[in-house]
Specification:
The complex is a heterodimer.
Chain A lengths: L11 E4 L5 E6 L5 E8 L13 H8 L9 H9 L4 E6 L4 E8 L3 H13 L5 H18 L3 H13 L13 H4 L4 H11 L6 E6 L3 H12 L23 E6 L6 E8 L8 H12 L1 H14 L3 E8 L7 E8 L4 H17 L4 H13 L1 H4 L3 H13 L6 H10 L3 H11 L6 E6 L7
Parallel strand pairs in A: 2-6, 7-11
Antiparallel strand pairs in A: 1-2, 3-5, 3-6, 4-5, 8-10, 8-11, 9-10
Chain B lengths: L3 E4 L5 E6 L5 E8 L13 H8 L11 H8 L3 E6 L4 E8 L4 H12 L5 H19 L2 H13 L13 H6 L2 H11 L5 E7 L3 H12 L22 E7 L5 E7 L8 H12 L17 H7 L4 E7 L8 E8 L5 H17 L4 H18 L3 H14 L2 H5 L1 H6 L3 H11 L5 E8 L5 E2 L9
Parallel strand pairs in B: 2-6, 7-11
Antiparallel strand pairs in B: 1-2, 3-5, 3-6, 4-5, 8-10, 8-11, 9-10
Helix pairs in contact in B: 1-7, 3-8, 9-12, 9-16, 10-11
Classes of the chains: A alpha+beta, B alpha+beta.
Chain lengths: 426, 436
């Protein structure tokens, strides 16, 4: 099966003189082309008092350039059914687009226009800021989002990962055009920008077209931020319950600081997480909390290993009366991973799932493009998909126990709950 | 895409489409039963029965289906909506036989263990409570209920809470016994297989299954609406919402196609990808009239193809400081414009192009294709899917004008406002950073 996966022979990777990294992989049978990538202008560089600045800057890129208005950009894209969007994360600003293959030139032209010549018109910035403020009001009444916001704040106090990328009403309210212009000038650079194009277009053609669109972009004054924030330590339990009026369900998050994507323990923790809260109907957590106790419609766990140390967390949506039972269930399963070796068959199942599902992940142009960008982002190597199965199979039951002992402490964890006001505390 | 259609002796409709782009195959089973077939007292039963099909069948005891699919590198799920209940598995192509064995076994031999029924009751109540946390769900439920006084599209697929508390094991078992027969089902396979061999295997596994009675025809068509209906909700949150729903024809009605063009012009092209949303649609008329003018933070539209006449639904989130009434006023101006002046030939052409692009994007995934084959067969027939683009291309400016006048009139609509009454999040009674 791995014979048909993108490999060093079939992926083309080119680095332009200005530092842009182009990845491309040719597929056939679909008339569309997909583009995705990132550059190093995420929220890491914004001061906490301006949380949301990177996000508003990225969102405003499509709202007007030296050659096109917001309306003209939309007309050009949508009249041919194409799409293009930008959004900020902590480290990077990501972009994604798709079009019929015949419209790749148009897509690249607009991408380059937005990246290189945005004008941040006052009126457009105000409009987008208002939309974001409305969304932040919605967030305050959304239990899922409030639980996650609270969790991040508790796990990462005074740390770039602890602030909301979308910002807060009080920080977004004051952002204006000048702030965006400055942020753009200081951080938007072609240096290290990654762009992947997947579809029915020959590799050399893609590289030539990207070079034509972005190859002569220079931004010597800008500093792409490649720093990695420090790891965090958790020495005592931290918990916070946020009341959200008028709701019928509570969202619960239990989690720990874990590891970075390039940590040697990553694959072990990835397998452990698959057993804990992914495999089948959401792993052991699903078996315990949903299937055996009937407590929740959704319960799962995630290992968010990024460029820096990300969290490992379990999430459940439950009736307010069942919050404590859900927490107990999550901690019970964490304990079990530490106390008992995962049976051979269960480990083999999770390994088979992770390796066997790769063809599905690589079915669409979008899936391939996202995988190429991930390989580049974490320096996994163009032969990663060929090595992947071996990496997954090399994890042992003892490895899973060790990473669980290292990371899933059932006494010392972060707990965030957002839901209807509770009558009693325990 | 070439589609083969076969009907087995026991009535099972089989749709096959080979696609050799990637070594992946999807298999879907569609039952012609959904919340449309429910009466008061058992609302939500179709969806609950769907959940029970993951709780064990003779050859696949509880927990086996999801584990075996995952072990083989696949994904699977089930959905219930107004017109259907459906299940699918997508697997590496050489493993697809597992999907056929799962679906044939649970079509005939699902267990419906009473203990599992009891456990699933709380899971489904939790699913409904999760939805109730969203103001847009609460408003949508009221708007649709007001729009349908008679037809069972009146209630949400999840069901009413009182019914979720009282539906019995016996009622669920009767539902399964009535509707889960091959004569009431459609099997659809898309992907990397050989069609004759696939058909042979489907025939071997599903051919011996017994027919079942099938759904009773629905005799409660919605009478014409004689005046605008309005619902006003208030609730927590500082955000306000507007929803407007117009009665529109069923998928099989020729008017559906000009209506689809009209909805694309007003609210944008619909995404056809099952697992991702709609495109941004920033050139649609209502985006320009509501979002560009800073009345709304977002606007979207939905015209789902349905078996019986359903709704064209427009939803907008009012911007902070704006009321649903202000948004509605601007929306009305746009509706009046489309009633008075014909759309331009250019708008028509763009709408068609946008829909074609969505078709192209959706064709990359066999799972999406399987979804559309089955869906089309349930709400119309497979020809509906095959001729969708050509029917759309045949739409004229005059036809769009005609359906606008026919369906977008005030007396044919229900308007809903949700007024956020502030009261933001705060620390819970157990206090901030309380340490156990």
């Amino acid at each position: 099966m791995t014979g048909s996966f993108p490999s060093p022979e079939s992926i083309t990777r080119a680095v332009l003189p200005n530092g842009v990294i182009v990845l491309t992989y040719e597929t056939h049978g679909s008339p569309s082309v997909v583009m995705s990538g990132h550059l190093w202008a995420g929220s890491l560089s914004e001061p906490p008092a301006q949380a949301g600045l990177a996000n508003l800057t990225a969102g405003s890129l499509t709202h007007g350039t030296e050659t096109r208005t917001f309306g003209q950009i939309n007309e050009a894209l949508e009249s041919v059914g194409a799409q293009l969007g930008f959004g900020s994360a902590t480290h990077t600003v990501g972009f994604g687009g798709k079009a019929l293959a015949e419209d790749l030139d148009l897509l690249l032209d607009i991408l380059a226009d937005c990246l290189r010549k945005p004008t941040f018109p006052d009126r457009e910035v105000a409009k987008l800021r208002g939309q974001i403020l409305t969304d932040l009001e919605r967030r305050a009444h959304d239990t899922r989002r409030m639980a996650r916001l609270t969790f991040n704040e508790l796990l990462y106090p005074d740390h770039p990962y602890g602030y909301s990328v979308n910002g807060y009403p009080e920080t977004v309210q004051g952002l204006d055009r000048q702030d965006l212009v400055r942020y753009y000038a200081d951080h938007y650079s072609p240096q290290g920008l990654v762009i992947s194009v997947v579809g029915a277009v020959p590799a050399q053609t893609v590289v030539d077209k990207v070079a034509a669109a972005l190859g002569d972009w220079e931004a010597p004054a800008a500093q792409p931020n490649r720093s990695i924030p420090p790891a965090v330590e958790l020495d005592a339990q931290r918990r916070r319950i946020v009341a959200v009026e008028g709701k019928t369900q509570a969202d619960v998050i239990v989690g720990w600081p874990a590891l970075a994507r390039n940590d040697p323990d990553f694959m072990k923790a990835y397998l452990a997480n698959t057993v804990l809260g992914v495999f089948g109907m959401m792993g052991r957590l699903g078996d315990n909390i949903r299937e055996e106790q009937g407590l929740a419609y959704y319960v799962y766990s995630r290992l968010e290993a990024g460029l820096g140390v990300g969290p490992w967390l379990a999430v459940a949506g439950v009736n307010p009366a069942n919050v404590e039972r859900a927490i107990d269930g999550i901690l019970h399963e964490a304990r079990r991973l530490r106390d008992e070796l995962v049976p051979g068959e269960e480990l083999a199942d999770s390994q088979a799932y992770l390796t066997g599902s790769m063809p599905l992940r690589l079915e669409t142009n979008e899936g391939i493009s996202a995988t190429l960008v991930e390989i580049e982002r974490h320096g996994l190597g163009l032969d990663y998909l060929q090595r992947y199965e071996g990496l997954v199979r090399s994890v042992t039951a003892q490895d899973i126990r060790e990473v669980s002992l290292a990371y899933l402490d059932p006494e010392v964890y972060v707990l965030a709950v957002a839901g209807p006001p509770v009558q009693e505390s325990r | 895409m070439a589609i083969e259609k076969h009907i087995l002796d026991n009535g099972l409709t089989v749709l096959l489409s080979e696609s050799h782009r990637a070594p992946v195959t999807t298999f879907w089973i569609w039952y012609r039963v959904g919340s449309r077939n429910e009466v008061p007292g058992i609302t939500g039963i179709a969806h609950w029965a769907e959940h029970m099909l993951f709780k064990g069948s003779q050859a696949f005891p509880k927990g086996q289906i999801d584990k075996q699919i995952a072990r083989n590198g696949g994904v699977m799920n089930g959905f219930t909506w107004m017109d259907f209940t459906t299940f699918f598995e997508t697997l590496p192509a050489d493993r697809i036989d597992l999907a056929l064995r799962i679906e044939s076994d649970r079509m005939a031999n699902a267990l419906f263990d009473p203990e599992e029924v009891a456990l699933e009751r709380t899971v489904i109540i939790s699913e409904r409570q999760g939805a109730e946390n969203q103001p847009t769900f609460l408003l949508g439920e009221e708007v649709v209920a007001a729009a349908f006084r008679v037809h069972p599209y009146h209630h949400e697929t999840i069901g009413d809470m009182c019914d979720l508390e009282t539906i019995s094991h016996e009622q669920l078992w009767r539902h399964y016994g009535s509707y889960y027969g091959p004569n009431n089902a459609i099997a659809a396979a898309v992907g990397d297989f050989d069609a004759p061999r696939m058909l042979e295997r489907i025939d071997a596994l599903f051919g011996p299954l017994m027919t079942r009675p099938g759904p009773q025809p629905i005799h409660r068509p919605e009478p014409p609406q004689r005046g605008e209906r309005r619902v006003n909700l208030a609730g927590p949150g500082s955000t306000s919402y507007l929803q407007v729903a117009y009665h529109v024809p069923a998928a099989s009605d020729p008017d559906f196609f000009p209506m689809a063009v009209l909805s694309t012009i007003l609210t944008g092209a619909s995404g056809m990808n099952l697992f991702s949303g709609s495109p941004p649609n920033r050139t649609s008329r209502l985006y320009k009239a509501l979002v560009e003018t800073e009345l709304a933070a977002s606007v979207s539209g939905g015209l789902p193809p349905t078996l019986d006449p359903y709704l064209y639904r427009i939803a907008a989130t009012a911007r902070s400081g704006k009321t649903p009434g202000q948004v509605e006023e601007a929306l009305d101006t746009e509706i009046e414009r489309v009633l008075k002046e014909p759309i331009s030939a250019e708008e028509l052409e763009t709408a068609i192009k946008q829909t074609k692009a969505q078709f192209a994007y959706s064709s990359e995934s066999v799972t999406n294709q399987g979804y559309w084959l089955g869906y089309s067969s349930v709400v119309a027939d497979i020809g509906w899917f095959e001729t969708f683009l050509s029917n759309l291309e045949a739409v004229t400016v005059d036809e769009v004008q005609r359906v606008a006048s026919a369906y977008l009139e005030p007396r044919n609509r229900t308007v809903g406002h949700y007024l956020g009454q502030a009261g933001a999040a705060g620390p819970g009674l157990s206090g901030e950073e309380a340490t156990v």
